[in-house]
């Protein structure tokens, strides 16, 4: 775990190339039976952040595929960050393909992991693009998603559809776009942040908690305000 701390310290000091090289070298030396362990996951999370800071985000998916031996084997925590990164960069096609393949893989049907990835995908990719039918199919097609969370997301879809219809019916001015899209769905989003964005392991690197906290703030915003918030950050 000394290497992980060193890599995380380099990230905090904004020495991104050095942090990335350290993660790559450590991961390269891990035997195959350790590739699915906590150390590989944590190192990969640091590496993803370093890639993003270096504006080399296009290398992230090939990198994690190589580390874990296939896109469908990516740990949920790592995939959540990949979804957030591609959402920020407005590069939706690759992450859509990867996430849908991951969600369909038999080995990923464990409740916690699938639910976290599905909810990140819904909130950061499907919802901003008004893919309401896709959201319904996702939450209704996976029995592993609890009934409470299924109902919450279906309510979110209904609220978003009503809001979209209202905006489309408004012709007064462009300022109508500022209508709050998530007024009736805020409980759903905040619940997701509470259960999935807060660190669950005490040893989680500080930068991971900060990044996921930022993502949590973004998820509570309307699409228009979300874009403005991201512009301030990046």
UniProtKB/TrEMBL annotation:
The keyword Membrane applies. Pfam families: Pex26. InterPro entries: Pex26 (IPR010797). The keyword Transmembrane helix applies. GO terms for molecular function: ATPase binding; protein-containing complex binding. Keywords: Membrane, Transmembrane, Transmembrane helix. The chain crosses the membrane at residues 206-223. GO terms for biological process: protein import into peroxisome matrix; protein import into peroxisome membrane. One of its GO terms (cellular component) is peroxisomal membrane. PANTHER family: PEROXISOME ASSEMBLY PROTEIN 26. This is Peroxisome assembly protein 26-like isoform X2. It comes from Branchiostoma belcheri. The lineage of its organism: Eukaryota, Metazoa, Chordata, Cephalochordata, Leptocardii.
